[in-house]
Amino acid sequence: MDGIDCVLVDFQSDDLKLISHLEQPWPLELKQRLHSIATPGENEIDLMGELDSEVADHFAYCTNQLLRQSGIGSDQILQSVPMGRQSAIAQTLNTPSPCR
User: How far apart are CA 64 and CA 73, in angstroms?
Assistant: First the structure.
């Protein structure tokens, strides 16, 4: 769990086209808190709720960074990939699946 990996892919033709990618490390304090929830402890449900919100904020930040870096506006994004489809996409792109 080293960070967030983002990719921007064009799915409009039969050949997938990688437009841009970004790797953003987790902030140290957040990374430590994410690791801490992997072991039993007090207030796990409360902590999970807090972390869920913080992780979502970082996903949104990385998405915006990726779009800025690629020069693509959010209005040009037609669809995001639903969870569970990553394996099929990784296989199509001939990359390791993040789900394994």
Answer: 9
H or E segment and range at residue 34? helix 28-36
Given 3.40.462.10, 3.30.450.20, 3.30.420.40, 3.20.20.140, which CATH number is that of 3-93? 3.30.420.40
Alpha carbon distance 94, 89 (integer Å): 8
pTM summary value? 0.70
Q: What is the pLDDT of residues 9-36, one digit of tens each?
A: 887 777 888 999 999 999 999 999 998 8
